Amino acid sequence: MTQQTIRFTFDNSYRRLPDRFHARTSPTPVAAPGLIKLNAALLEELGLDLSSSTQERAVRLFAGNEIPEGADPLAMAYAGHQFGNFVPQLGDGRAILLGEVIDRTGQRRDIQLKGSGQTPFSRSGDGRAALGPVLREYILGEAMHALGIPTTRALAVVTTGEPVYRETILPGAILTRVASSHIRVGTFQYFASRGDTEAVRHLADHVIARHYPHTIGADSPYLALIEAVLEQQAALVAAWMHVGFIHGVMNTDNMAISGETIDYGPCAFMDTYDPATVYSSIDHGGRYAYGNQPGIAQWNLARFAETLLPVIDDASDAAIQQATDLIRGFFGRYEEHWTTGMRGKLGLATNEPEDVDLIHGLLDVMKTSGADFTLTFRRLCDAAADPAADGWVRDLFVDRHAFDAWAVQWRARLERDPQSPAERAEHMRRTNPAVIPRNHRVEQALNAAVEQSDCGPFETILRVLERPYEDRPELAGYTDPPQENERVLRTFCGT
Ligand code: AMP
Ligand code: MG
Fold this sequence. Notes:
There is one protein chain. Among the domains are: 14-179, no CATH class; 348-429, no CATH class. 41% of the residues lie in helices and 13% in strands. The protein is built from 16 helices and twelve strands. The strands form four sheets. Strands 2, 6, 7, 8, 9 and 10 form a six-stranded antiparallel β-sheet that branches. α11 runs antiparallel to α14.
């Protein structure tokens, strides 16, 4: 009997773009593939059936040792601003796009192997990934998905049986990543910086058809594209801010045109609220600090808009002015998403202009009092249900009186809001997570897997993060901020 493998129904639209968009290249087979994790829910979403496949076959496939039928593997070309400096050629140096599948809901999704060996874009890199960062991307991506934030996702993790050489010798691994596409701001920059206007137009048309078909009939489709991408990013970064997520490397090559969170390197969730928070070991100047993220998103979008200028209405002055106005309008769009979400976090169903002051009032007290971001908002849900729970919130503040003074204003505002306390608390619990991937817990899970080959804590934290808005007994030990000696101060991209 011949063994079947997982059947993908590929339809590789990116492969059909001109040759200069990509380099055809295959994964480099690995010595001894071993399965760490398959994402059953995502396999199901993609309509991929594992039942006809032996596990061994599946592992070979996710290790790049076997190419599935219909795949047409390639490395994507892209450029990017890294910490503000333009690099004209980056590209997939350690990732290979197997192809695209249409999922059960009709959505096109990229299937990419990350850590699958060298490509023509590897420069001096080995094309490989270490197990720790791969598991980190799995945990963080799935946590973001469960929080309801657009993100690339992890389909599988396999170990390679080969060492990777970083500061120390580490076990190698490959992540199978699923994205609505891997097209980045840097993909546009790659062609624009070469003066290849035809390719920019081609790419823009591909993106419009694939991600933003509603802009097709617009008077000026490329301006409409800028507006659509800007809207997605404004919503995305606001969503990050609402849960205390710090991306860590918002380079233009790490900003997906689809509006999904991509490239979980040194990202982290903030414990104590402080807009200046930075975890990334490579972000010396704090360029990508929590509070800088909206401004950086706007800067990246300006770089995106610049690439399109030559194709917008023959680069007329009017077109350039309109593009400039769109970018200037970013903060207005961002503020709207942010304020709407923050109102929800405070339990307000109605809008009053002064709500912005109320929101900032709380954040100011949280900052000076070193309050934990996630716990403050989660405990406010209890306080909304019953003022007797106020003490539970104020315990998080060094300056309890400052919190009390704010709470008086909050309660006065709640009086003017139509929801019942129970109803309000329920809504708040759906927007203020009980649990986030706390850095110290993530580190513990990665260390156990890498140092003791124990994936138990990795599996546990995945289960904990699956339903972040529900209080469950399993959350015990995962909701609290780190003790002084558990605190993680730095995160590493691990490349
Ligand atoms: P990242 O920091 O992961 O966003 O990657 C930035 C650039 O470096 C991309 O072009 C990657 O493909 C490339 N890169 C990162 N790690 C490696 C590696 N181990 N081998 C080859 N290229 C890499
Ligand atoms: Mg990247």
